[in-house]
Design brief:
Elements (H helix, E strand, L loop, with lengths): L6 H4 L12 H12 L6 E5 L6 H13 L13 H8 L5 E5 L6 H11 L9 E6 L6 H12 L5 E7 L7 H4 L3 E4 L5 H14 L6 H11 L3 H11 L11 H8 L4 H12 L3 H13 L4 H20 L1 H11 L11 H17 L6 H12 L11 H8 L15 H5 L1 E2 L17 E2 L2 H8 L8 H14 L3 H9 L2 E6 L3 E6 L5 H5 L2 H15 L5 E6 L2 H7 L16 H15 L7 H8 L7
Parallel strand pairs: 1-4, 1-5, 2-3, 3-4, 9-10
Antiparallel strand pairs: 6-7, 8-9
Helix pairs in contact: 3-4, 5-6, 8-9, 8-10, 9-10, 12-13, 12-14, 13-17, 14-15, 14-16, 16-17, 21-24
Bound molecules: zinc ion.
């Protein structure tokens, strides 16, 4: 039995003219070969799966083909065949991502000065060149400074900004672009026809969308879909969606329409059906976001609207009633929620909560926009700076604060809002818990940010929805609501220094260390306003996220959550809001 060859290998381009969607690269290299203007080092930059390695091999073949240097290598001579098979002695491929040992670098230097094994050129293809060790990088740099005759380097990287400028300046740089959807679709159509895979327009669109400009992914998807092929049958979109756990877009559209028009009962029912069908929630978020972005695009692009209208089998009249801002709000909300998904105790529950919040009549009037936050931080807002940044006015009315003199501990301590429910007050009486006036901390934080001179640092602190947990003689403890910003804050000593300086000026204390804690403030605040997620001890383990989870969990337990009674659980969770 003949071994199955993956389609992406079988349909790998073999000459420059076969490259898909890289016109500039094709033209530049073709001209260089035709007019004998090959340079000794190329740098191929661009996202994965756009043809960098394939192009490097094609270039190698074009230069070393036994028929002579040509844009049309024969593909049959010893040189061409050995390059295709990856065993040419004169074409050395190094994947820096998987070979990061020092020996490789030394090997590289040693072999550079040896002659070729009969080919015109000795060609080095170094993939993911930004991942070379410092040692190897230096060796490469030295070689590039005085390249031996007949040696050509083809460097490739997905992360150009990590390649040092001295390397870039010694290479001719070529940019590989994500492949356009149209080009992807044409290619998929072609391969499907060659392979007798019967798929319709919907599936082709599905493939091109899902692969996001990565040709290799697109062809691999087609490969996976081909297993559904039975003789004399057309593959149904439904089968494909099931194979990938993707939600049928026409069903998803019903949910989005219901949410956009605040049809509460319909939204809940549709969302519940989706959850019950056992769809992967992360995939569901992804699909939902894609569709909403498509709809937002259709609202301003009439040509695209026609296309989408056909796909969804709906006239999309609903779009006329929706403000653009409404889309942005939902996209923002879903993205935010998506990043928190992995911390959720129940992803299904979180999904339902998000849907509930988006059909809440207050959804569009909430004051949590970045703009409002900036105004507040800059003091332009006339509202008293009580409570947390981003609090809704409604939230503030419901909040009472238990105060405690911070001087007693010489620490301005972490503070939380507590609702007036007796339950919360009981918690507050527990000796291990401590509260203080949030005004102190938020005012202080506002001042600290105000004193920072660097705008990027200010913006980063605001984007990450940071807030002050405590400030003592030694330590500034900063809460961060969005964990995606955490690495950028934690690994930047310059930013830390600036924050420390401002903290010193603003507080009169002499803190020396900054500690960041990932503790989403919004999670407890917006979704579970009555839950006092309280720091229960003073230990330095900083296990805040688990505390956030505990409060989440207890809330779920209180509402006696059962998967078959999602709506009931959600109602309990959100304070038994009536759904009309
Ligand atoms: Zn050849």
């Amino acid at each position: 039995m003949k071994q199955y060859q993956p389609l992406y290998l079988k349909y790998r381009p073999q000459k420059l003219s076969e490259l898909i969607g890289q016109e500039v690269v094709t033209k530049t290299l073709s001209n260089a070969i035709t007019y004998n203007k090959i340079v000794h080092a190329y740098l191929f930059c661009g996202p994965r799966g756009t043809g960098k390695t394939s192009t490097a091999r094609i270039l190698a073949k074009s230069l070393n083909c036994e028929k002579g240097t040509t844009i049309d290598p024969c593909g049959k001579c010893v040189s061409c065949v050995s390059i295709t098979q990856g065993n040419s002695l004169d074409v050395i491929e190094i994947d820096a991502a998987s070979h990061r040992k020092v020996e490789d670098a030394e090997d590289l230097i040693n072999r550079v000065n040896l002659g070729t094994y009969g080919s015109r050129f000795k060609i080095y293809i170094i993939d993911e060149v930004h991942m070379l060790t410092d040692h190897a990088f230096n060796a490469l740099l030295k070689t590039l400074e005085e390249p031996p005759k007949n040696v050509i380097f083809i460097l490739a990287t997905t992360e150009e900004y990590k390649v040092i400028p001295t390397i870039i300046s010694r290479c001719q740089k070529l940019d590989f672009k994500p492949v356009f959807q149209n080009d992807l679709e044409k290619r998929i159509n072609y391969i499907a026809a060659q392979e007798k895979i019967n798929i319709d327009e919907t599936i082709i669109k599905f493939i091109s969308k899902r692969s996001r400009g990565c040709l290799r992914d697109a062809v691999s998807l087609l490969d996976q879909i081909s297993v559904l092929q039975e003789e004399n049958k057309v593959i149904e979109p439904k089968e494909v969606f099931e194979l990938f756990g993707t939600v049928d877009r026409t069903i998803l559209f019903k949910l989005v329409s219901a949410v956009l028009t605040f049809s509460r009962e319909e939204s809940i029912n549709l969302a519940e059906d989706l959850v019950k069908s056992g769809k992967d929630i992360a995939e569901l978020y992804k699909n939902l976001l894609e569709l909403i972005i498509d709809l937002a695009k259709a609202k301003i692009d009439s040509k695209y609207k026609k296309e989408l209208s056909q796909e969804l089998n709906n006239d999309l009249a609903v779009l006329n009633k929706i403000e653009h801002n409404h889309f942005l709000k939902i996209i923002d909300r879903l993205q935010d929620s998506q990043t928190k998904l992995r911390f959720a105790l129940s992803q299904e529950l979180q999904f339902m909560v998000e849907i509930m919040s988006m059909i809440d009549e207050d959804f569009l009037v909430s004051t949590t926009d970045l703009q409002k936050r900036i105004e507040k931080l800059e003091g332009r807002n006339s509202e008293p700076a009580v409570g947390r940044i981003g609090d809704t006015a409604k939230g503030q009315e419901n909040v009472t604060m238990v105060k405690r003199k911070s001087e007693e501990q010489n620490v301005i301590s972490a503070s939380q809002h507590i609702s007036e429910s007796t339950n919360a007050m009981e918690h507050a009486d527990t000796p291990a818990r401590r509260y203080a006036d949030t005004t102190d901390l938020d005012m202080l934080w506002k001042n600290i940010i105000g004193l920072i001179e660097s705008n990027p640092t200010k913006t980063l602190l605001m984007q990450s929805e940071s807030y002050l947990i405590s400030l003592s003689e030694d330590v500034v403890e900063i809460g961060v609501s969005k964990d995606m910003f955490l690495p950028r804050l934690e690994h930047d000593t310059k930013k830390k220094e600036m924050i420390l300086n401002s903290a010193k000026q603003a507080s009169g204390k002499e803190p020396k260390i900054i500690k960041y804690r990932f503790l989403p403030r919004k999670l407890e605040q917006n979704s579970f306003e009555s839950t006092p997620a309280v720091k229960t001890n003073d230990s330095e383990d900083g296990n805040f996220s688990s505390e956030a989870k505990i409060s989440y969990k207890s809330k779920i337990e209180e509402s006696s959550f059962q998967s078959d009674d999602l709506t009931g659980a959600i109602k309990n969770l959100l304070g038994a809001k009536e759904i009309d």
